[in-house]
Predict the structure.
Amino acid sequence: MSPSPVPAPRPWWRRALRAFAWLVASFVLLSAGWVLAYRWWDPPLSGLMLERRAEAWAAGQPYREMRCALPALPETLALAVIASEDQRFFEHHGFDWTELQRAVDSARAGGSLRGASTISQQVAKNLFLWSGRSWLRKGLEAWFTVLVEALLPKPRILALYLQVAEWGPGVYGACAAARHHYGRAAGALSAEQAARLAVLLPAPRRYRLDRPGAYLEQRQRWVQQQMRQLGGVAWLRARLRD
């Protein structure tokens, strides 16, 4: 009786393809679970916080973080942030194609390439990733933005943003920002104070409330005007209930 033939080994490219498929599937499941966990739990820290700690350690500089729990959504500040950063927050699904097109048109006309990130994109970047302009980071930001929009309701996305946003060197979240800049709870901010905090968000380590300058003063007045035109806190409450 002749011995059974030994099966030929699988080609290397099939083994590589199978390993790659397992890696992709694992990444998809793990990243989706990571995002979904924040539907119920508040993040203990964020990718941006870790990055700032590493920067301070590498530079041999002292580093101190200010954070505190946010017991409820500060409606006036939430409205100011939407008015300043992402007025179509409740309409888009993570990417504001209208603002992106405007940014591209502005750059083509000779202006500077302005940012068009939505609140959802900023949550994806600040909470899960790091700063930078590489294609890898941009691709991961797009993926996490899709997950954030698919797995979290809009009120939760907004609450997460207000918990992890950077409002100055070592100042993270609306609670710490309100206490640091105004010595009061985030829910007790006036419309003017909320607008002043909102205009810091594009560059919180460069802009300063104690020396705002003409640009920040003008921007703050514009944000307050937009808050009124959107419909005020009553508009926000209605959208959060939808």
